[in-house]
Design brief:
This protein has 310 residues and is an alpha/beta fold. The chain has helices at residues 11-28, 42-47, 67-77, 88-100, 208-218, 226-231, 262-265, 285-288, 297-309, and strands spanning 3-7, 31-36, 52-58, 81-85, 104-106, 111-115, 118-125, 130-137, 140-144, 161-167, 194-198, 221-224, 252-256, 273-278, 291-294. Helix 2 links the parallel strand 2 and strand 3. The protein is elongated, with a radius of gyration of 22 Å.
């Protein structure tokens, strides 16, 4: 089935990619298919508009071990475009499959369109200071970060086909002897709908209680800049937002005492509403903010928290 194909080991991400795939379907006039290792979610892809779903099933549980099977299926189907989830494992698999199919690969695309017989993408470079636009000849592979698109909604009773393929994905050269999961505290901040973020404007660790009270008043998770987590160790590293940390896309982001360097702003620029609180009216965060309060956070935040609690 020549057309647009989607792969992610994460079914939520695959449904997000399906939104982009269905947009390409309109412009390319080609079918949309999904490859997934998650058999329990196959019908949800069909309901969301997939014309065909391959359930790739193997004895090796690691998603990256499916690269050979995925390449075989895409080769038989003569895929024109492949959208892969921009997770660590998704990028690993996309690179292997693209190399096997001798196809061009673009990573971390923020937009994707079909024009002049090519796939055109845009992505941020230089820490968000510039946008790179690229055109890739077909067949083209593109990785897209999670939450770039909303999940494709169910459209009723889809008529797509579900096919199960057994994959020989064992590799005796590699054996996993132990797995130590990362212990996270609280909700995954990357998926939070509201975030209160603290920076070096906070004088001491005990003052995090100001952020905690404000976060409780608006139902938010607490994030921080790199200095707060890596230099001061006041919050875990998984709370650090920025170019090499978490990328968030909340409905509301409130930054307290943050200078707004580009390395941090690139991690919050997709927030729907940005609020900045800082004494320095030249703080760069004000340039990215929808609302700004110039003032001492030790005076402003308690007043704001009290008002929100009413």
């Amino acid at each position: 089935m020549p057309g647009i194909w989607i792969y992610s080991e994460d079914s939520a991400v695959a449904r997000q990619l399906l939104t982009a795939g269905l947009e390409l379907k309109t412009s390319m006039n080609q079918a949309v298919g999904v490859l997934t290792p998650n058999s329990e979610d196959a019908q949800s892809f069909v309901a969301a508009g997939a014309d065909k779903v391959y359930v790739v099933r193997g004895s090796n549980p690691w998603p990256e071990s499916y690269a050979g099977a995925v390449a075989d299926i895409l080769g038989r189907e003569e895929a024109a475009v492949v959208l892969a989830g921009g997770t660590l494992r998704g990028k690993d698999l996309a690179a292997k499959v693209a190399a096997a199919m001798q196809a061009g690969l673009v990573t971390d695309a923020a937009t994707i369109t079909y024009a002049n017989g090519n796939i055109e993408t845009s992505r941020l470079i230089y820490g968000g200071l510039a946008v790179c636009t690229e055109a890739v000849a077909l067949p083209a592979f593109v990785t897209i970060p999670p939450r770039t698109f909303a999940e494709a909604p169910a459209q009723g009773n889809g008529a797509g086909e579900v096919v199960t393929v057994e994959a020989a994905n064992e590799d005796e050269r590699i054996s996993v002897t132990n797995v130590c999961p990362i212990v996270r505290q609280g909700t995954d901040i990357a998926g939070a709908s509201r975030v209160v973020c603290v920076g070096r404007g906070l004088n001491k660790q005990e003052d995090l209680s100001l952020a905690a009270a404000l976060a409780a008043a608006v139902g938010a998770e607490i994030g921080c800049t790199r200095g707060i987590s890596e230099d001061y160790h006041w919050l875990p590293n998984d709370r650090y937002i920025g170019i090499s940390g978490q990328k968030v896309k909340p409905e509301l982001y409130i930054g307290m005492g943050i200078s707004g360097q580009v390395q941090h702003v690139v991690g919050v620029r997709d927030a729907k509403v940005i609020v900045a609180i800082d004494t320095n009216e030249k703080s760069l965060l004000f340039e990215a903010a929808d609302y700004g309060i110039v003032g001492d956070l030790y005076e402003v935040v308690p007043l704001l928290t009290k008002a929100l609690q009413k």
